[in-house]
Amino acid sequence: MPRIIDNIEKSLLPALQKTLELSDRADFCVGYFNLRGWKELDSYIETWSGGEDHCCRLLVGMQRLPQDELRQVMRLSRADSGMDNQTAIRLKKKLAEEFRDQLMVGAPTNEDEIGLRRLSAQIKAKKVVSYSNFVAMGSLSKYNYA
Known about the structure:
Layout: H1 12-21, E1 26-30, H2 42-46, E2 56-60, H3 66-74, H4 85-103, H5 110-124, E3 128-132, H6 133-137
Parallel strand pairs: 1-2, 2-3
């Protein structure tokens, strides 16, 4: 059953942890993914076997700039042609740059490094499968961009 958590009356982290204790898979759609924050959840995902029915599917959103949205609305051709490979590659690089920039803020701790290594291992073991919203919206929706 879906729940809305506003971090005012209900706090997200304890709710996620409690839910993950009882689960063998999860689907998350987030506007922002804090790489260092993953360590708060990774132990719950670690117990899962991985693969399609026992993994955490993570859809990471990418904010569109207002000028990009305006261009989309005002373009002459209204036909939705999907997304070409060049655009998908460019957006994938942009997402990787945003993650890199995130890691460059502040001094990393040993716990941060352990958490990032565990996330990497979970992605390789298909315990975490991540997608970007540009992939889900475009014609390349079948591809995993972890």
